[in-house]
Structure formats: C-alpha cells, structure tokens
Amino acid sequence: MSTPIAFLKGHGTENDFVIVPDPENALDLSRAAVAALCDRRAGIGGDGVLHVVRSAAHPEARAMAGEAEWFMDYRNGDGSVAEMCGNGVRVFARYLQHAGHVAEGDLTIATRAGVRTVHIAKDGDVTVGMGRARLPEGDVTVTVDERSWPARNVNMGNPHAVAFVADLAHAGTLYDAPPVSPRAAYPDGVNVEFVVDRGPRHVAMRVHERGSGETRSCGTGACAVAVAAARRDGTDPAVTGTPATYTVDVPGGRLVITERPDGEIEMTGPAVIVAEGAIDADWLARASG
Ligand SMILES: N[C@@H](CCC[C@H](N)C(=O)O)C(=O)O
C-alpha cells in the first residue's frame, strides 16, 4: 500500500475546495485525478482543488517566488486549469495560517493571474487584493431558454459575463452552461453571473462556473458583478474619484467588494477549514487512469 496523501476540506461562502498540500510539487495531479477528488459521490467532493505548492517548485510560479512563497495551483472540478479563484485564494490563505506557515496579518500568494495580497483579520474574515478588472469592448448576450439578456464582459484574470436579470429564478436550473454569444468573445470559455438588485449598492447573484457548474459562490464573479454594477449605476470610481463598495449576496453567504479610483479591487469574506484527512494513494492512482 502506498503512503496516504494528506488533504483538507475548506470553503469560502460555500464555494468548496479539496486542499492538497504538496510543497515540493511531488504529486502528479492529472485532470482525471482532480475530477475524481471533486466527485461528490465517488470522491471527496468540491468545486475545485487548491494544490498548495511552493512557488519555487512550480514551473508556472518560479518567476514569482521572490514575491510570494506559495503558489495556488487552482483547478476546477472537472480538472481544468483556471487563471484565478477569488474564494480559493482566501481559503488558501486560511490553510497557510491553519498549517502554521503564516500568521494573521498580511501575506502574498502567487496565482496564475499574478501575485495577490491577502490580509487575514483577527475577526476571521480574509481580504484579498484582486487586482484590476479588464472590460473588453463588444456586446455580449446570455441566453437561458426563451430569455436573453445583454451582458457585460469583465475579466478578473478569468473571464466573466455579467447579466442583470429581473429574477434569479430566470437563470433556470443551470445544469448546463448558459449559451453566451458571440462565442469568440470567450475563446477559453466563460463564467456566467446572473444578478438582481437588493438595495443601494447591494446585489444578489447566481453563477454558472466554467469547469464546475453552478456553485454557491464565486469570488472573481462577485468582483465582476460589482464592477459591472458600478458602471451601470454611475458609481465607477475612475469617474467619480471615490471608492465604490458593493455587497454581493451569493447562495452561500455574503461578499463585500470595494473598487478604488485607481481600479484596484478588494474582496472580503469568510474562509473556513472544515476537515482534514488522508487520500488513498492507490485509489487516486487508479482514478488518474
Ligand atoms: N470559484 C472561483 C472561480 C474559479 C475559476 C472559474 N471556474 C474559472 O474557470 O474561471 C472564484 O471564487 O473566483
């Protein structure tokens, strides 16, 4: 029998992850292995995997090793690779604290979208500097059944289409990815957010994530929603010169997003470790095919 592989389970506003500490990048976490881990019946279950690797030990992160000791090698539930995961980076920071690698306060984490700054507060919430949004030009349309909505193309390191709708139920079951057109606007696929107003600078959303399906929360998605809402509401900080803060309710909780006049975005929310265990390495090897 092979040596078991340590894992933890954690979530941020119920966007849940299998955390696999692998400081020296010794594991071969294939696409099939990640999908098996995330399987909610035959595996551990999660929206994605947070593979915890020292930046110096990962080819995609080596160049960031001087700025951030740890690299979040994030994978979606189907095993695909994504550039960024906003809830994931908060849970990743919570894991580093839990494992004694870092203390409360400020730290940096390398991601495929670049180095992110994180603050672990005494009250338990974790804030992450999400960088700036990009807003590619061009009209985008999201469709569910017989309804279509104009959507805003927002890139938070990963791609989003944000549609303001009259009722979140209009998003339907979200079992399948809602069609977004033109497809050429998103050559690598897209995360789709459906948004309703709850009050001044307060919205609620549902999301269909690329590579994971409908999830209970998406941090980059919540940031994309806040950015789109600010442009719609005339509160774009680059225009008004004052920060815009939006409360974004997700099915799994609440995130608070602030965009500053220089475009930098901060997101605050909870991050929780719920379990620790050991993966049967032989099972994982078989699952990897
Ligand atoms: N849940 C994440 C986003 C994860 C990546 C996304 N599915 C993609 O493929 O871009 C978040 O909290 O940001």
UniProtKB/TrEMBL annotation:
Keywords carried by this UniProt record: Amino-acid biosynthesis, Cytoplasm, Isomerase, Lysine biosynthesis
Compartment(s) of residence: Cytoplasm
GO cellular component, one term: cytosol
Site residues, Could be important to modulate the pK values of the two catalytic cysteine residues: H160, E209
Pathway where it operates: Amino-acid biosynthesis; L-lysine biosynthesis via DAP pathway; DL-2,6-diaminopimelate from LL-2,6-diaminopimelate: step 1/1
Primary location: cytoplasm
Catalytic activity: (2S,6S)-2,6-diaminopimelate = meso-2,6-diaminopimelate
InterPro entries named in the record: DAP_epimerase_AS, DAP_epimerase_DapF
Name of the protein this chain belongs to: Diaminopimelate epimerase
